């Protein structure tokens, strides 16, 4: 999603640069600003339409109600751009610019924290949940006993830590299991599979991490 947003943003910037190159020498500032308003407006609408059609034809699983709201945000920002261009006073310019920036910020937040989460797999959502929980509890590690740290790690640690120490960040690309399971989750599973080897491996890893803590 980040790559798509970056691609679209660079496309709009490219259109503006091309318009500027085209306008040099024979377009007045007023005509240039008028053309700029139209080019950006149509460019954003075209990119939004292209994204909708591409997802509809090739990746329908990416179209959620959160995506529909995101497109409405984008269209609203586009019309606010035209609204900004139609201002007649400095006060209108300031007020409409603040409104456009607020809408743009809201669009970005919705894209990452609403739509982005809606298209995650169950495993990715679980990883995100455990990541937030681990980072919150990790701040309290210095005040915790070894047993308390071990309990936290068994409940929240689903992947290796950088440098295999408590101070290291989560290496999400190196999970203990494909579905981002923790020690406690595996120990409580009752699906007929034998997770003893994996449970022991995670337990040994947690013990090693805590031992490093003790050596400091």
- Number of distinct helices: 8
| Mean pLDDT over the residues | 90
Helical content class: over 70%
Give the neighbour order of strands across the main sheet. Answer: 1-2
Tell me about the largest β-sheet: 2 strands, antiparallel
Give the overall shape, derived from the CA principal axes. elongated
| Strand-pairing-aware structural class | mainly alpha
Enumerate the spans where pLDDT stays under 50 for 5 or more consecutive residues. Answer: none
Give a count of the beta strands, DSSP E runs of length 2 or more: 2
Residue fraction in strands: under 5%
Distance between the termini: 42 Å
Evaluate the radius of gyration. Answer: 25 Å
Question: Helix and strand string, N-terminal first?
Answer: HHHHHHEEHH
Description:
The structure is a single chain. The chain is mostly helical and 216 residues long. Helices cover 72% and strands 4% of the residues. It is built from eight helices and two strands. A two-stranded antiparallel ribbon has the order 1-2. The longest helix has 30 residues, at 29-58. The model has no long low-confidence stretch (mean pLDDT 90).
């Amino acid at each position: 999603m980040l790559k798509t947003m970056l691609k679209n943003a660079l496309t709009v910037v490219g259109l503006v640069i091309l318009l500027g190159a085209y306008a040099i020498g024979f377009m007045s500032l007023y005509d240039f600003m008028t053309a700029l308003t139209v080019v950006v407006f149509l460019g954003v609408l075209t990119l939004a339409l292209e994204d909708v059609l591409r997802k509809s034809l090739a990746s329908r699983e990416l179209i959620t109600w959160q995506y529909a709201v995101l497109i409405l945000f984008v269209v609203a920002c586009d019309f606010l751009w035209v609204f900004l261009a139609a201002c007649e006073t400095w006060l209108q310019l300031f007020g409409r610019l603040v409104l456009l920036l607020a809408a743009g910020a809201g669009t970005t937040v919705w894209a990452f924290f609403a739509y982005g989460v809606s298209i995650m797999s169950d495993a990715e959502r679980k990883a995100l949940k455990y990541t937030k929980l681990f980072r919150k509890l990790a701040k309290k590690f210095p005040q915790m006993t070894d047993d308390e740290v071990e309990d936290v790690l068994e409940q929240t640690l689903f992947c290796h830590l950088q440098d295999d120490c408590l101070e290291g960040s989560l290496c999400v690309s190196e999970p203990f299991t494909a579905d981002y399971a923790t020690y406690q989750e595996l120990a409580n599973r009752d699906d007929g599979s034998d997770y003893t080897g994996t449970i022991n491996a995670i337990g040994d890893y947690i013990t090693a991490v805590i031992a490093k803590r003790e050596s400091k």
